[in-house]
Design a protein that fits this description.
6 copies of one chain form a homohexamer. In chain A, about 40% of the residues lie in helices and about 15% in strands. Chain A is globular and about 55 Å long. Chain A is of the alpha/beta class and about 240 residues long. The longest helix of chain A has 19 residues. Chains in contact: A-B, A-C, A-D, A-F, B-C, B-E, B-F, C-D, C-E, D-E, D-F, E-F. Chains A and B meet through helix 1, strand 6, helix 7, strand 7 and strand 8 of A and helix 1, strand 6, helix 8, strand 7 and strand 8 of B. Strand 6 of chain C pairs parallel with strand 8 of chain D. Chains A, B, C, D, E, F: Its EC number is 3.5.1.-. Chains A, B, C, D, E, F: GO terms for molecular function: hydrolase activity.
Chain lengths: ~240, ~240, ~240, ~240, ~240, ~240
């Protein structure tokens, strides 16, 4: 078990990992990886409009509700672990202690790859802030002089998962992942997000259309893989390979 | 043998494939691929200064000499095949017949990947022209209505190999290939280029420094692969994968 | 009738105008505009795979079939006019006479806006070629010395309609058009494209998801318009206004 | 009066709104809008060289003087309101309370559009900081869970007004506004800025030249509007329309 | 005289060199350089609207008139030489012979720097075509195998002079030249362009405002040079220096 | 001595100035400039892996060791002065007092140019943070109202020196400096960095290859300067000149 491959997903708000990379989580778990999810906030202020429209709602209730949804989704996906940083949203801000906690998690997980948001998002500054923090913490986790004696982090890829309006964010996918085998799990996780039902069909349509892009890029009408659902990701760092 | 994987390198001038992807050629040949090289010109006018400084030199002599060097280099690398289009250089211009010949070659080779130059090159317009032609011919080779009945091309990746001044060309590598096992072959191919001896150490230094980048991106001081020589490439199209 | 507003759509292949701006065509016709469609080719070689898989197919049959589909689609949309340049595809190439014909059409139509493809498309060089030609012809149509005495073209906006893989083409929409009132017409036009049935659901999903983007940008959960279907466009030139 | 349209201008220093969008302010006021100006600082340290060259100058005197100039300019333009945040300049830094104040103002004004600085400015980091804060506060103001019960903000456009050296800032206008009807007001507001007289002719020349761009883009020599003065703006978000 | 430094200006239409770099021409002539101007066309179709509005105008008359204006302007600036390629405009297209003529000129002049248009211009495809040709011919002129025996071209800088709407062309100046000493000559050259009087004040305003940018970048309010008129240029290639 | 020209190098970690601009430092000193180096941190946590692998290492020992290396290197280069801010690394963070100290240094040195890191660095957020701080402090140092009475800063160029993986950082050199006359000093300074011996050959190879770029851009095979070692820099601001 010690040598299972691992991955770490860093999600600004509780639901981001569901819309944006639930397929990758479920698929890698099925392939024997252990995927850990870090939710930096619950999205309690900014992504819970439906809850706030209810009578007598409080911040604590919203957070509890969002946490429950996220835990259910993680379970449906078979995720190895889910951690909540409860750092607040709109705006999300991590102090040094919270950043150190994320560094510790990176070192503990020793991920082969990490995931986070697009580099730019003029609609949601929490998203780009999260990726900035992920880069900073990756650097610190690699430093031999940070908590000397601990096993330092290697050089995991950082995949940027799909934002809501890709073109406005300057996000460009360079890899498509076939998530057909785990689609039912992703859809089930999506349906855990009861507070954002208006997005269920959006992200289903998207997975179907990304599969078209998968087929187009894997051979087109001359032998392209017949993927039904896919997710796209943008890589921050170059790959290193033995064969192209 | 029918099912050996194949690749196609499209080189504007006779020596480009040596400096820029000789390692990839030799390595894939060693791994059981068949790599075909298409030299669109001999670089006879623009990349043969040393020859032209000799007394009594003629265009035909330069071309013959350059062809011989390229054939020797291809042989040293164990390349499956090398084709010469003799389309002229400075400027390189392919008419419709020459483009059709390149389309035919793509369909015949059915490459899993192709290689060509950077998208932009203000020093050498032949280079960017070559990539433009490669894209156009890739599109035509995929068309069911071009020479109907032939096997159409799938969706091969197009890797852009390293130009001479990367930053001026806006070239950004997203994959590094460890060519340590075949370095001696690449160096031998480089030494076939007797007319451009001033570039031998440049491309040797480069391979060594790219190996540093390989190590940095494969784990750094915490387990990075100890590559000694590497080549970098920029992908034009997204990858399609089953696992990240 | 002389003062109806007009628009001109320039489509590389016969079906492009359907997938990419059928909603805009139908909507503007309903609002009293006259929209002319220029199909530079039938997409006979490159976008008719289904036909070419039939026994005994010929280029002329494919072209006739594709023309019929395009005419039906234009009729369904209520388009004012549709012109076929029959310039060939894969590759599409317009000689000077064909370009002059396009210049003449621009001057005759005197469009308030024009539409064409994305500026970059590594999958389909016909697409980016079309936009390059559109820009060149727009410039010529504005020249007082080209066929002196004719009414010159003003400064129509050039909208770039949505390509198949937006992020790979570097296409970024800056305007979303609500096409809910004419969706049934667009869907009917899509269904005229019998040879490309595999794309029907793709472009339906897309219209639905673009409506989500429309809502998000027109007010979000605080009063956003409840659009059900939308199309996105990228503007080449700045707008000139009296009020923001 | 409740249904007058509104706009909010966010100006890093006291004079920015004058040089960069005084025409837009005066024009929209004349058209029945209410425009509110938020000056985050007085520009007391960094944009008051002329005052600091006087004997015995103090920070408070500079601030008072700059405030007076800005109030006069706002009055000349007929601006609905002007607010001073007095957050300091060179560097400008808003703490959480100041940001909350800006969020409150956005919710109170409920602007149809907002204005701020370019995304990048290597000469003046206060400018790009201001836009970053504007985006963050826009996001917070949209959150149902921020001060629940208040009316949340919709999705106002954010226009970036013209910086001093446009090309160095990567600023690209996508809309030109004809300010001819209110030019005299803009010039009068400019003349209120007694401390920066060296910029009066610069911004007058600029308005005249932008009108040339307005004419070029509204029809050129074939019917372009004869604007005499104009301002340019870059949009951050896509527009949503019913007709192109 | 053999060792005077030389420069070569490549102008798409007859008047471009006046608006965009007349100051640089006059200034370098005064400093002892020899500047040669190559006008690829007269701008007879596309930039002579005023002439075409006259009764009985013919192409030949327009060309003669434009040539005369350009020659006068060159004379006023003291330019060493002006050459007319008469390759036609809207569109401008150079065949191989015309390109060879430009290569010959580059070799004959042996310029220390060359000048041409912006890399991109969606309003005027002749402009970007000219720069593309300039790059191609620079490459050919450097080739030892092109007309062997001639003195090959070195590596002259290619400066892109200022287009009409800088931001739309993606043009970014990296060097400002103080043209105060020769402003009167530039203004006189501008006034030679009798057919485009509507642009005189535009380019005067521009020179004044560019001087403001010159001052800002040469020291600002702490010692900036008091330039009154300036021109901006974008460099294509890196500089090589002995001291920064 | 008062009128010696001066420069200021701002280095995130103790060794950055050695790898990236030691040649520029030594060369300008030899030419009579005074170059001051500001090391914001010692790189004690993140760039001292070799030291941390020793038994019983402490943060203070690492810092002392790194300081000693940097001082030796500065001495070898003949640098006028070296200052240590000891602001900590991985992450590097300057509070207001530390920034004010940097502003004071800029005013004291009154540099003709400054140097710092690339604008973007996804591997090392300390690097891009340093350049952000350099820009902010440059702005403050120019403000007449910051510590009124002091001599304000002019408008020094900010050169971005070469990062470790140029293409990943989006760094593009626009000037190459011939450092052949001082190469031995640079190599000696490099060898002072005993803790990072794995980088010695990397930066030697790089200097050799940059000299190839120098030659290519200063004339190529037709008179290019025969530089043996070079460094490249990217300019943030435009130059202002009297002659091109």
């Amino acid at each position: 078990m010690a040598d299972r491959k691992t991955a770490l997903v860093i999600s600004a708000h509780a639901a981001d990992f569901v819309w944006r990379c639930a397929g990758a989580i479920a698929l890698h778990q099925e392939k024997g990886w252990d995927v850990t999810i870090a939710c930096l906030s619950y999205g309690e202020r900014g992504e819970s409009a439906k809850l706030w429209k209810q009578e007598g709602m409080t911040l604590e209730k919203v957070k509890a509700d969002r946490r429950k949804e996220a835990e259910e989704a993680a379970k449906v996906l078979g995720a190895h672990d889910i951690r909540f940083f409860d750092a607040g949203d709109y705006p999300l801000e991590l102090d040094r202690a919270a950043k150190d906690e994320l560094v510790d998690l990176m070192r503990k997980v020793q991920p082969a790859f990490m995931m986070s948001h697009s580099l730019y998002d003029p609609y949601n500054t929490d998203h780009m802030y999260t990726t900035k923090v992920a880069m900073e913490c990756r650097m610190i986790a690699q430093a031999w002089g940070h908590n000397p004696g601990e096993k330092v982090l290697g050089a995991p890829q950082l995949y940027l998962f799909e934002p809501h309006q890709t073109e406005q964010m300057g996000w460009k996918p360079d890899v498509f992942l076939d998530i057909t085998p785990v689609w039912e799990k992703k859809r089930a996780a999506i349906e855990c997000m009861r507070g954002q039902e208006h997005l269920w069909s959006f992200y289903t349509n998207l997975a179907v259309n990304r599969a078209n892009h998968f087929r187009r890029n894997s051979g087109g009408q001359a032998g392209g893989r017949d993927a039904k659902y896919a997710e796209g990701f943008q890589s921050v760092y170059p790959r290193t390979v033995d064969e192209l």
